[in-house]
Amino acid sequence: MNATTTRGSLLAALACVLVGGSFTANSLLGDYPYAGGQFLRYGLAFLLLVPLAGPGAATRLRALGAARWLRLALLAAVGMVGFNLAVLAAERTAEPAVPGVFVGCAPVVVAVLVPLLEGRRPQRIVLYGALFVAVGAFTVQGWGRTDGAGIAFSVCALVGEVGFAVLAVPVLRPLGPRLLSTVVCGVAAAESALAGVLADGTGWLRRPDAVEAGALLWQAVVVTVVGFVCWYMGMQRIGAERATLFSGLIPVAAACTAPLVGTGSYGAAQVVGSALVFAGVAVGSGAALPSARARRSAAERQTAPERSLEKL
């Protein structure tokens, strides 16, 4: 792995670890209105990201066109607001492990879907790595009680996780990671407010207590501002296929942090599952390949997204 791919891998890994750790914060927001919480999270993140958007932000936004603005709206609705809503809805009738297992399949879906959208064949080494990651995520979380609704909403969560990566590919280059994160947070805040008014009326937003405020601040500042920028910086360097491999670290991080608040344990299954996730990431990212093959794989990673974006 060269310096660019190494840096991209580390950024993607950091982003996914932060998201996994945020599951602990989610457990503290069970009584807070969903849409209101999303509005506060993404609205605060938007305000913090605006100064970081970079020079020429307004010019780049005006040059996007209607089609790419629609894609940004879908990215926020599917990959952010919709994803969180699907997880919450799934956990009403299913144990948290169930949506976690489905989301853990995202690397496999992305490893197949992105190459097909770009007019090329999936890379077997990435697909093998994605399968290792999915099996590892399942091992870490196990399987829990569920029903048809729980499975249906878990599938929706999987769609949201895939959409968060795939929908961003054509707009990542013209906007860059910081401006892209800024825009989607602003759009997600507006969509959350609209959903809250329509679903809950005047009760969609209230003042959070001290514990809820701390959880929302963590999600906004650390998970969203830092995590989103790191995620898209990583994806810019190594491509959506390999970046999504690191989403297998989300259940690993969640399993590691759960004992801190007494909501879970880290035992033998978590150790084995974590090892499988790490092996899958190493294989799929090229870190476990001989140096010559790794150099060829890195070259493909750098040129494939460029060819795809040129077509768009």
UniProtKB/TrEMBL annotation:
Residues 7-139, 165-283 form the EamA domain. Pfam families: EamA. This is Integral membrane protein. The lineage of its organism: Bacteria, Bacillati, Actinomycetota, Actinomycetes, Kitasatosporales. PANTHER family: INNER MEMBRANE PROTEIN YTFF, OS03G0707200 PROTEIN-RELATED. Keywords: Cell membrane, Membrane, Transmembrane, Transmembrane helix. The keyword Transmembrane helix applies. Belongs to the EamA transporter family. It is a multi-pass membrane protein. It is found in: Cell membrane. It comes from the Bacteria. Its main location: membrane. It comes from Streptomyces lividans TK24. The chain crosses the membrane at residues 40-58, 70-90, 96-118, 125-144, 150-172, 179-199, 211-231, 243-262, 268-289.
